[in-house]
Description:
Layout: H1 8-14, H2 19-23, H3 35-39, H4 44-61, H5 64-73, E1 77-79, H6 86-92, H7 104-125, H8 134-159, E2 164-165, E3 177-178, H9 180-203, H10 226-247, H11 256-269, H12 276-279, E4 284-285, E5 303-305, H13 307-312, E6 323-325, H14 329-332, E7 338-340, E8 359-360, H15 364-378, H16 381-394, H17 412-427, H18 434-441, H19 474-479
Antiparallel strand pairs: 1-5, 2-3, 4-8, 5-7, 6-7
Helix pairs in contact: 1-7, 4-7, 4-8, 7-8, 8-9, 8-10, 9-10, 10-11, 10-15, 11-15, 15-16, 15-17, 16-17
Amino acid sequence: MRYHYRYAIVAALAGATLVAACESATVPDLNAPSTTELAGPLTQASVQRLVSGLVDNVRRNAGLGYFYFGEAFARDAYRFDPSESRYIYEAYTSAPSRTSFFGASQYNGFYGTIRAGTTIIKKLKDTPTTTISAPEQAAIRGFVRTFQALEYYHVEEYHDTLGTPIQLADSSKLGPIYCPKSALAAISSLLDSANIDLAAAVAAGVTTFPFELPSGFVVNGNFTDVTTFRKTFNRGLKGKVEVYRGIGRNNDGVASSFDVAIAALDTAIGPTPTTMAQLNVGPYFQYSTAPGEFPNPIADQNLRINQRVGDSVQAGDLRASKIVKGDLSSYTARGFKYQTQYYPAVSLTTRPANFVNPIGILRVEELVLLRAQAKIGKGDLVGALQDINTVRTISGGLAPLPPFVATGTLTATQVAIKALLYEKRYSLLLEGPQRLVDLRAYKMLNAANLPKEVVPNPITGAGDRFNSAFFIPQSESDVRGGNVAPVCP
């Protein structure tokens, strides 16, 4: 990719003010990598700056838009902002355009990270092993490629059948725009390349990454450890990608991907979790109210939970703590009576912990449910039930479900999917667009499965288009001469 990404590396690094910089005096100023660092061979110090910039960019990309837009499309959440009505009308009453408030706001950030990662990897080739050893370089490549894959996956989550551009090895040329099947295959391959690098680093004796990482990498498991990062995060993300390769879109699922997903998730999960602490293991985005930092993006007084989400939680489900009764009469009178667990968070003096609460990037709880999803895909409803009940009993505090059997007009498999989607909805509420991805994958994002939303709209009135994806932004389309139709090589 070229176009406006030419400045993305500077943007990605210039904003790199990590909490890690405040936590350790050994981390240098991350705000201004020098021209020499961007042009010459890498050093230990420049690796720290560049990787810190990349990680911080990933975190900033996962802002309010990332967490909210998917939940809005999946009709689990709303954001009522008196000064910005597009949070509602672009979600429900108009198709997001190539210049839309929704789609264009995230795209550049994701590819800024990918381009920054490519720059780091290219610079490693010019770095003597006497400065950074070959095993350390492998660890760096594996780390960077894993996060590039994560950002590609974030693009695919939101663009789906409208296409995901994949960068070529020669980043000065425009890469192809892939359909979901091909995009997921490319992401899976990138994760495997990263895994090979990480495994090589460990085999050569590199136990920790040769750079410091922010606090979110050690709050629930030590993801500064190369082995933990490889097994739980890289293989966990691999399993997630393979689940959706298996389900496919438009009857193009790859059946063998379910086996690949289960193998990867078995590695990532390890022994079956028995405690909530084990389900919470994973790297996290961390937040701060310190100068130059930014707070938890969903500590937002304007966010509200769909009434059906609050009303549908099962009695005794501990995850109901994520949903609280609202106190804004102008909204509750319209039926929007639920808020998130992070409200009220109007200022630093009202529930200040909400502003620094970390959000999981990929937790074991999600991985267990993804493994259940893969088992459903294989027809192993007994194995899927075991995984679903692991999460249901620990995270939800609910009684285990009985074996899945056909009920009414639903087959046993459909009953299993319905149970899975319930657990994923409440376990992962406002942790990303997972529900949107699942509703699309199972062809349930439509009026046959979901009631239309009636939402207040000052411009076009009430309605619901069941939007499911964003178009490639206009800036990308212009560079490509309007040729943005995805291909499936």
